[in-house]
TrEMBL record:
Protein name: 4-hydroxy-tetrahydrodipicolinate reductase
Domain of life: Bacteria
SUPFAM superfamilies the record matches: NAD(P)-binding Rossmann-fold domains
Pfam families in UniProt: DAP_DH_C
Domain 2,4-diaminopentanoate dehydrogenase C-terminal: 207-343
InterPro entries: DAP_DH_C, NAD(P)-bd_dom_sf
């Protein structure tokens, strides 16, 4: 069966999603929404550096939702940090239109029933109204942390704790957004939005609850802490200049406590230089899941690219975590899904086009 897919946005990760959709044996690209006026009416393939595809991007949401399609690949950026209401409304309209959604936007939606009862009820009702389903994946929150931990837990007989890590070198991300988000190049941690009290909890709480439900415990309290690395000399990265003495690396932890003990932990190691936080023994970009128990289990997931590939392999992995899920989500009963609900969704892209 071929599933017809609409791509929602045409940014960096979205371009990788389009390439993945084109290469997937069971998917067909039938439309795309673009935010920018200058992209309206342009060929999606040309916007994504793939050559003409005969599929035109549009800013007309209602016309796009009238297009016959089975699923929307929703890859809107980080506007949830400031105000998610408009984009959440778009998501509800898509679901009510009868189209399934595979989603990368807003970490809360990885496991929304654990975070906000009203939010979950709105999503669930939209799914029931449209006969549609939604799953949110990505890398973290998503497959890199929760998915990897669930794989490790399949081998455990006793579980004392689950610790999930993301390791990321952000030196190659263009645009000032990544710099502002983590406070890179700032002298004061108060200038880092991600470290404002409660932000990392809001970002990762649903992942903690998903894993807690998986192992059969109830989180009683969530606490957060962080460690910073400062640049010992000035240097430049794709997003700008990092003066000496400013933040060059951020390591933060969000812990779900049970009986005062950290039972489930998400930790991010976000840096601009490879030698920062070297004590953790993880080179390059990737993820780690550590299950303390019997047996003790550590799984490391490394993200890399083949020789000659100039794109970002993490963006590819993030995009494919939802693209590959499309057939499973379309086949599911209507409702809000998570990684706990879906069987594995391996790639069926023997030779997807490369950007």
């Amino acid at each position: 069966m071929t599933y017809r897919v609409i791509q929602w946005t045409t940014g960096t990760v979205a371009r990788e999603a389009v390439a993945g959709i084109l290469g997937h044996a069971d998917l067909e690209l039938v439309g795309a929404w673009a935010h920018s006026e200058h992209k309206d009416g342009q060929d999606v393939g040309e916007l994504c550096g793939l050559g003409p595809l005969g599929v035109t991007a549009t800013r007309d949401k209602e016309a796009l939702l009238a297009t016959p399609a089975d699923c929307v690949c929703f890859t809107v950026g980080r506007n949830w940090v400031e105000d998610p209401s408009e984009t959440f409304g778009d998501l509800l309209r898509i679901l009510r239109s009868g189209k399934n959604v595979v989603n990368l936007w807003w970490p809360t939606l990885v496991y929304p029933k654990a975070q906000d009862d009203d939010l979950y009820k709105e999503l669930e009702q939209a799914c029931l109204d449209g006969g549609s389903s939604i799953v949110t994946v990505g890398m973290d929150p998503g497959y890199g942390t929760a998915g990897l931990a669930l794989s490790a837990l399949a081998l455990a007989r006793e579980v004392s704790s689950v610790h999930m890590y993301q390791f990321m070198n952000n030196a190659y991300w263009e645009g000032e957004g990544i710099t502002k988000f983590f406070g890179f190049g700032q002298r004061d941690a108060a200038r880092s939005p991600i470290l404002a009290p409660g932000v990392t909890t809001r970002y990762h709480a649903t992942t903690l609850h998903l894993l807690a439900d998986a192992i059969g415990v109830t989180i009683e309290e969530i606490v957060e802490d962080h460690t910073l690395s400062y640049a010992d000399e000035a240097f430049d990265v794709a997003s700008g200049h990092i003066p000496a003495g400013t933040i060059g690396g951020v390591r933060y932890r969000v812990k779900g406590l049970v009986g005062g003990v950290a039972k489930v932990v998400v930790e991010h190691v976000e840096k601009l230089r490879e030698n920062d936080f070297a004590e953790l023994g993880f080179a390059g970009d990737g993820y780690r899941a550590v299950v303390e128990g019997l047996p003790g289990i550590t799984l490391d997931l490394k993200i890399s690219s083949p020789a000659g590939y100039s794109g970002d392999p993490v963006a590819v992995a993030s995009a494919m975590s939802v693209v590959n899920a499309v057939p499973r989500v379309c086949a599911a009963e209507p409702g809000v899904l998570s990684l706990l609900d879906l069987p594995p969704f391996p790639s069926r892209n023997p030779a997807a086009p490369r950007l």
